[in-house]
Write a sequence for this structure.
């Protein structure tokens, strides 16, 4: 493929003036370096004595066969390794180690999988990324930045197209990759790390993405480091430098243009013409498919030893040491917290931005709440027509009780439908947290604020349909009390989903655990086995903090405490299934039904307080999990 010139496609933040904007153009960071970097996991060596130097304006490719350590090295350079992994020495910027918070403030990591919200448009994606990272610019300046990036990354025509959801097609794969980079770039980083940015794209799409990255580095003096699997020749030639790895050890670090000369002069291996150099290099350092493993390993060790003894390696070590020495003398200082850095938004601003973003997602993406609303509406119609117009007679008492249990327990059980939507939010949060945009508090508050109105709407819709069709106590007070308890039920159930899914961010595991927990609450809430009969273990260990217990109890009180039911009249006289003080009038006082469960009115305030504590408790538990998870 003969690619066009890249000079006309350098990403600029200000396309009108032709100069990069102040917030993106790097004037302080000159180098990223590391020396003799090794990493072990459980005493197993993953990386061994890696050394490298990338200067501002350059783009480095980390390449190697599967299992060579390229992704591990990329995560190590981005300082994203978990505490269980030990690495040394530190990663240096301008020859200096930085505290993690400062390091994260000037670096960004672009995941291999797109960290994009499918329901947002391209323009909205950049707008919200800017709002989450910067608070010190005007609306006009923010709009100009977004417009500049749209033009820079060739996304002007797709500006008002959604990224794409499970039910609606959006932009292409290559455009998503460019948008993913632009989303991180708008936050003003000095270093950008990318995990296999061309993965899943065809040759043209991969070349296009790397072309934009190269232009971004050139025009704005940024440092870009990307792991890459097997690029096309045209894509490979766009990189300035290459770090070639095999089994955690370096085989080459230097200019892509100098590869042929190095292999011919240092190793006596001539790179064949008319062959993709990336493919040829990978063949030389990959021994997984060699017929003679021992011979192949010997050759691999010889090539690695050749690199260690090479003049290029000696020069690289000198350059890295020189950068560190210059920093020690104060000659290449980088001040992270200077007046040129833009002010970050406060917690209130971040929460409202997340609420706004999540609200857009919630009404555009049917998976979030649309499907649940439709599901609960269908459930209400089914419930209302199965328990249809029950008369106020003793024959309806058991059906009324069953309906109350079904309406409260099954609705909370169906909160499992929220698992996939929350899991998407969680994955987005995890990626944005690692890039230093916001933390667990903002995530927890915004999630609660967005979900609460929808849960109230679901409670109203469900109740309007099912309550009057089933002919529960026909008073406004009783109706709104029912709505209130149903709303608390859904709040608690969604809090349980948030906690379980945060604890186990896997769709299958979280779904199974939430279903199991709700099954447990249904078993001990007082309907299946009355509280007076329930054995002491289940009663004192689970019953009293079962939110379904308080919902079922108060819905029962709401229906039966102030209502009477007619007994059956036969030729032999009046027969009442429950004996109360109204038996002589051939009636059953509803309190007689409640006495079987040990329920009495007058404790609603206390029960509401307990429900609030359970709801807050689930949210705090979810917040704690998010806070502690690395």
């Amino acid at each position: 493929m003969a690619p066009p010139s890249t000079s006309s496609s350098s990403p600029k933040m200000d396309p009108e003036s032709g100069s990069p904007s102040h917030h993106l153009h790097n004037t302080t960071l000159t180098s990223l370096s590391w020396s003799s970097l090794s990493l072990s996991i459980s005493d197993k060596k993953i990386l061994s004595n890696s050394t490298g130097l990338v200067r501002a304006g350059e783009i480095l490719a980390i390449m190697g066969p599967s299992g060579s350590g390229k992704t591990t090295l990329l995560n190590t350079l981005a300082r994203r390794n978990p505490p269980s992994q030990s690495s040394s020495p530190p990663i240096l910027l301008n020859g200096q180690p930085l505290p993690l918070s400062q390091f994260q403030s000037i670096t960004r990591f672009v995941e291999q999988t797109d960290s994009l919200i499918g329901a947002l448009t391209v323009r909205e994606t950049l707008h919200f990324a800017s709002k989450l990272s910067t608070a010190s610019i005007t609306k006009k300046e923010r709009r100009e930045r977004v417009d500049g990036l749209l033009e820079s990354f060739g996304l002007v025509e797709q500006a008002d197209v959604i990224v794409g959801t499970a039910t609606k097609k959006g932009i292409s794969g290559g455009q998503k990759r460019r948008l993913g980079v632009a989303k991180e770039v708008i936050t003003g980083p000095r270093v950008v790390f990318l995990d296999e940015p061309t993965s899943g794209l065809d040759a043209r799409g991969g070349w296009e993405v790397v072309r934009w990255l190269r232009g971004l580095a050139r025009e704005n003096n940024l440092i870009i480091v990307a792991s890459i699997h097997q690029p096309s020749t045209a894509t490979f030639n766009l990189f300035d430098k290459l770090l070639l790895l095999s089994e955690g050890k370096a085989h080459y670090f230097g200019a892509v243009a100098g590869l042929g000369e190095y292999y011919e002069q240092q190793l006596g291996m001539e790179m064949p013409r008319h062959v993709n150099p990336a493919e040829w290099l990978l063949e030389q350092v990959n021994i997984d498919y060699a017929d003679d493993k021992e011979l192949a390993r010997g050759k691999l060790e010889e090539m690695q030893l050749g690199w260690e003894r090479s003049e290029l390696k000696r020069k690289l070590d000198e350059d890295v040491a020189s950068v560190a020495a210059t920093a020690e003398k104060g000659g290449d200082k980088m001040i992270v917290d200077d007046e040129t850095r833009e002010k970050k938004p406060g917690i209130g601003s971040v929460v409202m931005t997340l609420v706004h973003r999540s609200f857009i997602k919630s009404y555009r993406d049917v998976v979030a709440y649309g499907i649940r609303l439709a599901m609960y509406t269908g459930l209400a119609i089914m419930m209302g027509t199965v328990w249809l117009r029950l008369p106020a007679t003793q024959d309806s008492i058991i059906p009324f009780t069953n309906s109350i249990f079904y309406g409260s327990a099954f609705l909370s059980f169906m909160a499992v439908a929220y698992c996939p939507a929350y899991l998407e939010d969680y994955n987005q949060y995890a990626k944005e947290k690692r890039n230093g945009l916001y933390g667990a508090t903002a995530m927890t508050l915004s999630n609660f604020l967005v979900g609460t109105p929808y849960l109230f709407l679901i409670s109203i819709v469900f109740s309007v349909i099912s309550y009057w069709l089933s002919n529960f106590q026909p008073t406004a007070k009783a109706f709104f009390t029912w709505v209130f308890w149903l709303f608390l039920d859904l709040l608690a159930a969604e809090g349980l989903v948030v906690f379980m899914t945060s604890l186990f961010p896997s769709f299958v595991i979280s779904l199974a655990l939430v279903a199991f927990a709700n099954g447990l609450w249904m078993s001990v809430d007082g309907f299946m086995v009355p509280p007076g009969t329930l054995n002491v273990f289940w009663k004192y260990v689970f019953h009293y903090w079962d939110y379904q217990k308080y919902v079922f109890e108060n819905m029962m009180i709401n229906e039966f405490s102030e209502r009477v039911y007619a007994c059956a009249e036969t030729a032999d006289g009046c027969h009442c299934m429950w004996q109360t003080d109204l038996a002589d009038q051939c009636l059953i006082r509803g309190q007689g039904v409640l006495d079987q469960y040990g329920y009495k009115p007058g404790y609603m305030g206390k029960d509401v307080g307990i429900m609030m504590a359970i709801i807050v408790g689930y949210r705090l538990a979810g917040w704690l999990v998010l806070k502690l998870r690395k």
User: Anything to note?
Assistant: Residues 51 and 317 are 7 Å apart (CA to CA).
